[in-house]
């Protein structure tokens, strides 16, 4: 699920992005269970992109530790 993870700092905190290769969309449920939202495909057509925003790095680290 957490294939090609990326974390970016932005004006409102941090944005976490993953783009796993799963052409049939079978990771949608797993992504939603982990609080990730489906986003525009950023890379390969077979790599669906999921995104989650965090207010700060502490919130991200707590989420990461829980998942």
Number of helices: 2
**Radius of gyration, rounded?**
12 Å
Shape: globular
The poorly predicted ranges are none
Order of helices and strands: EEHEEH
Tally of DSSP β-strands: 4
Name the structural class: alpha+beta
Query: What integer is the average pLDDT?
Result: 89
Query: Major β-sheet, in short?
Result: 4 strands, antiparallel
Strand share of the residues? 25-35%
Helix content: 10-25%
Q: Order of strands in the sheet with the most strands?
A: 1-2-4-3
Number of domains: 1
Gap between N and C termini, in Å?
11 Å
Descriptive keywords:
67 residues; 2 helices; 24% helix; globular
In words, what does this structure look like?
This protein is α+β, with helices and mostly antiparallel strands. The chain has one domain. 24% of the residues lie in helices and 30% in strands. The chain contains 2 helices and 4 strands; from the N terminus they run E-E-H-E-E-H. It has helices at 28-33, 57-66; strands at 6-10, 13-18, 37-39, 49-54. The chain has a 4-stranded antiparallel sheet. Strand 1 and strand 2 form a beta hairpin. The mean pLDDT is 89.
């Amino acid at each position: 699920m957490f294939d090609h993870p990326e974390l970016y700092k932005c004006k409102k905190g941090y944005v976490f992005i993953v783009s796993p290769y799963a052409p049939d969309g079978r990771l949608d449920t797993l992504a939603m269970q982990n609080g990730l939202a489906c986003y525009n495909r950023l890379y390969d057509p077979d790599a669906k992109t999921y995104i989650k925003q965090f207010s700060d790095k502490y919130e991200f680290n707590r989420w990461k530790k829980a998942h």
